[in-house]
Automatic annotation (TrEMBL):
InterPro entries: DesT_TetR_C, Homeodomain-like_sf, HTH-type_TetR-like_transc_reg, HTH_TetR
Keyword Transcription annotated: yes
Keywords associated with the record: DNA-binding, Transcription, Transcription regulation
Lineage of source species: Bacteria, Bacillati, Actinomycetota, Actinomycetes, Kitasatosporales
Keyword DNA-binding applies: yes
Domain HTH tetR-type: 20-80
Pfam families in alphabetical order: TetR_C_46, TetR_N
DNA-binding region(s), residue ranges: 43-62
Protein name: TetR family transcriptional regulator
Length: 246
């Protein structure tokens, strides 16, 4: 006679994870929780439950407790954010920025509460290492953008400051977007931030020769139906009404 157990097939063998696999599993569980809850609202019991393990096992891998786990999880998220601006060096600059912003804003959308807690510095588990991690993301984003502009080590202070100012604006806009109930729609926010970049670049070019050269080279790759072309057609009628300034 066939028993219920045998008819259901053999019981799956327990799969023991390697040390690295288990560590990654715990980091993924923590990231999932930190994505939608402020770090201070997440306990090690929560992480253990999400990963399907015991609290002592979490401590075995992260003896520093929640602070250590948060720092490691934040580092993993930072690595993902750093990749957002890594875009092939081809095509119009505005298209490259739009693609990078799609990834960046997509991350913000997915990790809304955790992103807010991270950038606003409101977490009780914030440490000098977490602050350094966030700054590292900003520096990496700046270097990637300068690479898109064709300058890295040769970037002067005006151009470098302009890029860093824009990154700060993107962060601020992301936080305000979350505070405003994720309005306007992400594509509109992305296009607006691309316009901001073009406007900042152009304004800086007016007083900085290096930025002027970079701007000419970037605009030469743009098309009339691209972001820069659309922005120019929208801005010119407004500027034409200020002809008396000339």
């Amino acid at each position: 006679m066939t028993t219920a157990a045998s008819s259901a097939g053999p019981t799956p063998a327990y799969r023991r994870l390697s040390v690295e696999q288990r560590r990654l599993q715990l980091i993924d569980a923590a990231l999932s929780l930190f994505a939608h809850r402020a770090p201070e609202d997440v306990s090690l019991d929560d992480v253990a439950e999400a990963a399907g393990v015991s609290r002592p096992l979490v401590y075995r891998y992260f003896p520093g407790g929640k602070v250590q786990l948060y720092e490691v999880a934040l580092g993993s998220a930072a690595d993902e954010l750093k990749l957002c601006f890594a875009e092939p060096q081809a095509g119009p600059l505005t298209q490259r920025l739009a693609s990078a912003l799609d990834r960046y804003l997509g991350f913000v959308d997915t990790h809304d509460t955790g992103f807010s807690a991270l950038l606003q510095g409101g977490s009780v588990v914030e440490t000098s290492r977490t602050t350094a991690t966030v700054d590292g993301v900003r520096r990496e984003a700046a270097e990637q953008i300068l690479l898109h502009l064709g300058v890295t080590d040769t970037a002067g202070p005006r151009l470098r400051m302009m890029v860093r100012t824009w990154i700060s604006a993107v962060e601020a806009a992301s936080l305000i977007w979350l505070d405003e109930g994720k309005q306007p729609p992400l594509p509109d926010l992305r296009d607006w931030m691309v316009d901001h970049f073009v406007a900042l670049l152009t304004a800086t070019a007016a007083t900085d020769p290096q930025t002027a050269d970079v701007t000419r080279a970037a605009l030469a790759l743009e098309t009339s139906d691209g972001a820069a072309g659309v922005l120019a057609r929208r801005v010119l009628p407004v500027l034409s009404e200020a002809a008396h300034l000339l």
